[in-house]
Amino acid sequence: MATGSDRETRGRRSNIDDELLELQNARQMFIERGRRGLHVENQSTPSHNIRPEEERDQFKTPCRANPSGNEHIQENGSKTPVATRLSESLINRVLSEMSTMRTQIETENQNKDTDVKARELKIKELALVERKRKNKQEESRLKQYFEEKEFELKIKEAKFKRKCIEQTERIAEQEIRLREKETLLLERISRIERKIELKEEELICRERFLSQK
Hints:
Layout lengths: L3 H33 L15 H9 L10 E3 L5 E3 H131 L1
Antiparallel strand pairs: 1-2
């Protein structure tokens, strides 16, 4: 995501590109005018024939007032005014400065990109360290939790075993009591049966005695 600084840098770079293009166009215009020999002579050219653009050039470059001594013969034979050469030199210097500035901005952008990548890498490293720290904390917490649960289970297991032993002992005692009761009942049944047998024998004897009479 672009930041305010990135948008400002792109805006500055766009402005510099526009200014470079404008200066290059102006430089080409001066060169073409020099080649065609379109220079202004204040002594021979009436003021009403001077175009507004030439009028501005005349005020900016007073050395054109004496073109006869300040002209330069190019290789093709056309005359180039000193003012045109000075303007071209100025444009070249400005173009050089603008190019240098553009290079500086590109270098700054590269440095910023490098800084951003370094910061991103640092953030990733910090995030990794933080994640490891949190994982270690979570691992320690889970370990403590499971140790507590294991301890609780051991306690519950001991209680359950003790309870099972107690229940087994109670069941054994109940079985002993039941066996004792069963023995008593069997003895009582045996005594009752014995009494019944004696009664039967007594009845038989009585019947015999009665039958003899």
